[in-house]
Amino acid sequence: MHFHKFEKIWLTFGIGALVLFLVILGYGAFYLGTHPQSHGLTIDPQNVEAHEAFKPENLGLTKVDEDRYIVNVVASAFNYDFGVDKEGNAVKHIEIPKGATVLFQVVTPDVIHGFNIAGTNVNMMVEPGYISSMEVEMNQPGEYTLLCNEYCGIGHHMMYTTVEVYE
Amino acid sequence: MKQHGKTHTNVDKEPNLKGTLISVGVLGLFIIISWVAVFAIFLSR
């Protein structure tokens, strides 16, 4: 078979790029352990409270170690449930120190919601029946909006809250 | 004995693919630059 010399150039380049991206994908998946935010961890959507992390008293921000936090959230139409504060009022704002490693764990009892902290890499779908989780380092101080970016119904646009990363 | 035209029938004229190479190169560069830019945003956040 005869190839033009230019064809050899772009075929080599194209096949090389394909191989390179497959290697990167394999490295991320098998060596670094990267996975989708919801990767088969299931939960009964009718009874999310049965899971230790989503009992009402365990919702919201919890400090587990120096600079390590867990945020457990139940997302439902049209609210993010972070639990209640000492006075019994619903938590609508969370504050995380700069540089902290935060594990977000989110479930929903009703429909598909989004969980996006705008301007950060925190962005995941929350599907009924699955636990979505993602660990990030919050390195840039500021006030961020946490919002739902999957249309979930009539009140979708009101489904947001704020996350502050302080120095 | 001369074999008229034999060399002409066996060797096809190569098409000129210079323009194609340049357009493929431009497209490839665009894809690479966009990928690197998006990856840089991901890393910086």
From TrEMBL, chain A:
* A GO term, aspect molecular function: copper ion binding
Q: Which key words are in the record?
A: Copper, Membrane, Metal-binding, Transmembrane, Transmembrane helix
InterPro entries, sorted: Ba3_CcO_II_C, CcO_II-like_C, Copper_CuA, Cupredoxin, NosZ/Cyto_c_oxidase_sub2
User: Would you name any one GO CC term?
Assistant: membrane
Which SUPFAM superfamilies does this entry report, sorted A to Z?
Cupredoxins
- Origin superkingdom: Bacteria
What Pfam families does the entry give?
A: COX2 (PF00116)
Query: What Gene3D superfamilies has UniProt attached to this entry?
Result: Cupredoxins - blue copper proteins
Role played? Subunits I and II form the functional core of the enzyme complex. Electrons originating in cytochrome c are transferred via heme a and Cu(A) to the binuclear center formed by heme a3 and Cu(B).
Which protein are we looking at? Cytochrome aa3 subunit 2
Which species is this UniProt entry from? Oceanobacillus polygoni
UniProtKB/TrEMBL annotation, chain B:
Pfam family, any one:
CoxIIa
Q: Any transmembrane segments, and where?
A: 20-43
Q: What UniProt keywords apply to this chain's record, in alphabetical order?
A: Membrane, Transmembrane, Transmembrane helix
Q: What is this protein called?
A: Cytochrome c oxidase subunit IIa family protein
